[in-house]
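Ticket #4471: structure output looks truncated?

Reporter: J.K.
Steps to reproduce: submitted the chain below (157 residues) through the standard prediction queue, then opened the result file.
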Amino acid sequence: MAFKPKPSSASAVSLTQIVLPFQANVAGNMHGGEVMKMMDSAAGVVAARHSRCNVVTASVTNLSFIEPVFVGDLVICNAELTYTGTTSLEVHVCVKAEDMEKGITRQVSEGYFFMVALDRNGRPSRVAPLLIENEKQERCLEAAKQRIEIMKKSARK
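Returned output as attached by the reporter:
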């Protein structure tokens, strides 16, 4: 069955939440695991919207924590599809934090989530190709292919 290519804009999401005390350590910094959970949720939504089926996280690459996030910050998690394979998808997730009192927004985390689409029986399911609409998306696609190749080579070792 052939699928019509879809643009990344059709599945991109932005999730937001305010950091609460239970999500932070005693110094008031949001736990890294909480940030990762939000990122994984955003990536899962993007992949599910594109594939129109259940998805699971297969791996995460280039995950970085750039700056701390504090209790009371508004966390903005933007996620967009960068690659599709036969049954897999890569989602870039960028996290920003806004100090709402000062009106200052800063990038705090970033990573790439490699997802696999699954059918009702838990088997890999084919996904629609990603429609590349501009040079930036072409560069992102080529970078994704390089990350995937590196991941495959390290898995063979």
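Triage note (M.O.): checked the attachment and the full token line is present. Residues 58 and 155 are 12 Å apart (CA to CA).
Status: closed, working as intended.
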